[in-house]
Design goal:
The structure is a single chain. This protein has one domain: Nucleotidyltransferase, domain 5 (2-Layer Sandwich). It is built from five helices and five strands, in the order βββαβαβααα. Strands 3-2-1-4-5 form a five-stranded mixed beta sheet, sandwiched between helices. A hairpin with a 4-residue loop joins strand 1 and strand 2. Helix 1 runs parallel beside helix 2 and helix 4 packs across helix 5.
């Protein structure tokens, strides 16, 4: 499974591509950070991110895109920009029928370090070890994008089992509701 990890942002948007092997084996294939000038108009910044992401999607052909889920921060404009960048990326993937999954920062940190409150240095150190990199990925956005991709690789089997269980439960609820309806009709005769 090829996973494109995305740490969305307007000023710096981290992109990564990893391939999952057997077990917890993961290999880094590419990593980059898209930078846009803070004084550029918002539509032009989003377009620049979109252009690079579309090139990545067409070139690398990931099976899935894992994007960091935006959460409440003190700076509303930062949250808005991050959400807008993530939205542009999700749309580009959806146009290509590529599944998109969102992971919270604490899910990513917990998956990679075992601690949902780990700091950036701990995440970067673990990414370097997990991927057997010769040097730490920089800037932090690159390490975060790699962490997102790894998180998804490791969580995907569980997410798949949960989706299957939810589908089975829905099917059983429908069957039970139909059974009750038949019994009600039969009792009313």
């Amino acid at each position: 499974m090829r996973v494109m990890g995305v740490d969305p942002g307007l000023t710096r948007c981290g992109l990564s591509l990893v391939e999952a092997g057997r077990g917890r084996s993961v290999v880094a294939l590419d990593v980059d950070v898209v930078r846009t000038p803070s004084d550029a108009p918002l539509p032009m910044r989003l377009l620049a991110i979109s252009d690079v992401v579309e090139h990545w999607l067409d070139t690398h052909r990931p099976d899935v895109v894992a994007i960091e889920r935006v959460f409440a921060q003190h700076n509303v404009s930062t949250v808005m920009g991050t959400a807008q960048a993530g939205g542009v990326i999700a749309v580009a993937a959806a146009r290509r029928s590529i599944d998109v999954h969102f992971h919270t920062p604490s899910e990513v940190k917990a998956a990679v370090t075992g601690n949902g409150a780990a700091d950036k240095a701990q995440v970067t150190e673990m990414i370097t070890r997990i991927l057997a990199l010769q040097s730490k990925p920089t800037p932090a956005d690159a390490a975060d994008a790699l962490a997102l991709a790894i998180c998804h690789c490791w969580r995907a089997p569980m997410l798949s089992r949960m989706a299957a269980a939810e589908a089975m439960a829905a099917k059983q609820r429908e069957a039970y509701a139909a059974k009750l309806k038949r019994a009600k009709v039969k009792a009313g005769r």
